Fold this protein.
Amino acid sequence: MTEERLPLAELLAQAGDGDFLRSVAEAVLQMLMEADVEGLIGAGRYERSGERLNWRNGYRERTLDTRLGPMQLRVPKLRQGSYFPPFLEPRKTSEKALVAVIQEAWIGGVSTRRVDDLVQAMGLTGISKSTVSKLCKDIDERVSAFLERSLSGEWPYLWLDATYLRQREGGRVVSAAAIIAVACDAEGRRQIVGLHIGPSEAETFWSAFLKSLVKRGLRGVKLVVSDAHEGLKGAIARVLGAAWQRCRVHWMRNALAHVPKAHQPMAAAALRQAFLQPDQASARQTWRHVADQLRPRWPKLGVLMDESEDDVLAYMAFPAAHQAALGQHAGAVEQGGETPRRCRRHLSLRAVHRAADRRRAARGQ
C-alpha cells in the first residue's frame, strides 16, 4: 500500500529536480497509452496485419494535473471511435501507483510485479508481458542515466544525509545504509547529484561514494553540511578537502535530548539566539553566553555546546546571503526550518508500506 504523501516527489522538488521526476512519469504514461492502443486496434504502428481492427489518426494534446506537477501528454486518436485512457479520469490510485514504480527504481531497480500493479491501477488492458519488461528497462535506464550523469561547473555547497533501511537480498532481509547527496551550483540551483545504498556507513563506504561524485565532475566544494558521523567527516576531509558544517537541525535534536520535554521550547528558543546574529563573532559570543546560562541546569547540554561550537557555526564564515540555507539539511529550508523526516521517508518504500500497515492495524484494534 502507498500513502497519501509523495516523499520522493517532495524531495526532488526541494532539490530542484522535480522536472526530472515529471519527465519520467510522462514517458511511462506515454508508453502505456501506446501499448494500450496497439492492443485495441490489433496491430502496432505501421504494421500490416489481417487482424487490424482500426487505424491511428494522430494525437491530441492533454494536460494532466498531478501532485508531481502538470504533465503534457499526447493521447492517441483513432479513425473510428475514440480512445480515452482510464487513468485520465479523476483517480488517486493510479497516480500513487505511478510514483511508487519510479521511487522503487531509485532504490534498486523496478520489478515487473510493480509495473503490473501500475497497469491494473490505471485500468489498462492488452498490455503484454514483453511491454511490461520493456517499460521496466526504460524506467531503470532513465533513473540510472540521471544518477550517473556528468557534473559540470562549480558546486560550492554539498549536503549529505544517510539512514538505515531494510531490504530483501538473496531471500533474506538485511540492513543497508542509504545515502543521498544534494549539491548547489554557482548559480544557486540545488540538485540531487548522488544516491547510493550499501552495507554500512563506514568511512570506506562514504569515501567510495564521494570519490564517485568527484569522478563524475563534482568540484569546487567549499562547505559540506551533514550529521556528525565520524566516518563521514573523515571521508569529507580526505576526498574533498572542504570545510564541514554540522547540520543545525540534527544538532538541535541532539541538544534537546539533554533537556526535559517540558523545558525544551524554552531551551530551543535560547539556543536559536546564536543563529540570529549578524556575524560569526556575535554568534560565538551569544553561543557562549547561552551555554553558560544553561550549563547549571543541564550540564550535558553545556558540554555539547562547548564541543560543537566550531562545527555548528562554521557556515557563518560564508557569505551572509547563503547562510540561511547552509546551516540546515537541504530539505529543511523549504519547510520553514522545521525538522525534516529522515531519508527513510524518502527512500524506503517497503518501510513506508510497513508503517502504513501498522497504523491501519492499530486503528482496527
About this structure: Residues 18-41 form the longest helix (24 residues). The CA atoms of residues 19 and 54 lie 35 Å apart. The longest strand covers residues 157-169.
